[in-house]
Design a protein that fits this description.
- The chain is built from 6 helices and 11 strands.
- With 213 residues, it is an alpha+beta fold.
- It has one domain: Gcn5-related N-acetyltransferase (GNAT) (Aminopeptidase, 3-Layer(aba) Sandwich), CATH 3.40.630.
- The strands form 2 sheets. Strands 1, 2, 3, 4, 5, 6, 9, 10 and 11 form a 9-stranded mixed β-sheet that branches. A two-stranded antiparallel ribbon has the order 7-8.
- It starts with a helix and ends in a 9-residue tail after the last helix.
Length: 213
């Protein structure tokens, strides 16, 4: 994790960032359970109206524990617009994707992603997953505990490949997940959407250069 870049992002949020006609800003960073953990609460303001937006937890990494960012407690709407259909969601993803190689993003309020996952779609090809994948993430896991308590809400875990070999492995796994889904799903529209997204991902990752966070 590029800590200088991270702190620049945190400082920008404290000052406020304009996204379309909405000002997105954060509270003062608060220390979490560990010295390396930072908690932020983000808000949205439009004219004189203000609402809470989401929570963000940032782990800077320690020893062999890798850094990560988690986004959760997301408001369903921002001034009447669904968060997961908004430019603010795109701003959040664009801002945090370059900062970390591991991301956790809650999808509870994303009804379309929830529906797609319930049909067995590969997490990386759902609405939210595809948005994350196109920003460099190839390994995905759906964290959903039907009777969970302390595990937290419904969220996707996404990780960037750290080598060409891992990238190819992740894409092969995704292709197998897609084949299984296509055999089981009877919804032709969603099957076509998932297949088209997989093709776009393969094109997107051609010429991938090893690196990552």
């Amino acid at each position: 994790m590029d800590r200088e870049r991270l702190w620049n992002f945190v400082e920008r949020l404290k000052r406020g960032v304009t996204v379309s006609d909405i000002m997105v800003f954060s509270s003062e960073p608060k220390r979490g359970r560990f010295a390396e953990e930072i908690n932020l609460e983000l808000f949205a303001r439009r004219e004189s109206a203000k609402q809470r937006l989401l929570y963000m937890k940032i782990f800077l990494g320690r020893g062999y524990y890798r850094n990560w960012i988690e986004v959760f407690g997301i408001s369903a709407e921002i001034f009447g617009v669904p968060f997961f259909k908004s430019e603010v969601k795109e701003f959040v993803l664009d801002s945090i994707a370059p900062l970390t190689g591991r991301l956790f993003f809650e999808y509870y309020e994303d009804k379309e992603t929830t529906r797609q996952l319930s049909l067995g779609a590969p997490p990386a090809l759902t609405d939210l997953g595809f948005s994350i994948a196109m920003r460099g993430f190839t390994y995905f896991k759906d964290w959903y505990f039907p009777e969970g308590l302390m595990e937290g809400g419904h969220k996707l875990q996404a990780e960037k490949p750290t080598s060409e070999e891992r990238l190819k492995k992740h894409l092969r796994k995704l292709e197998e997940e897609l084949k299984t889904f296509l055999k089981r799903c009877s919804d032709e529209d969603i099957k076509a959407k998932m297949l088209n997204r997989f093709r776009k991902l393969k094109e997107h990752f051609q010429g991938f250069a090893s690196g990552g966070c």
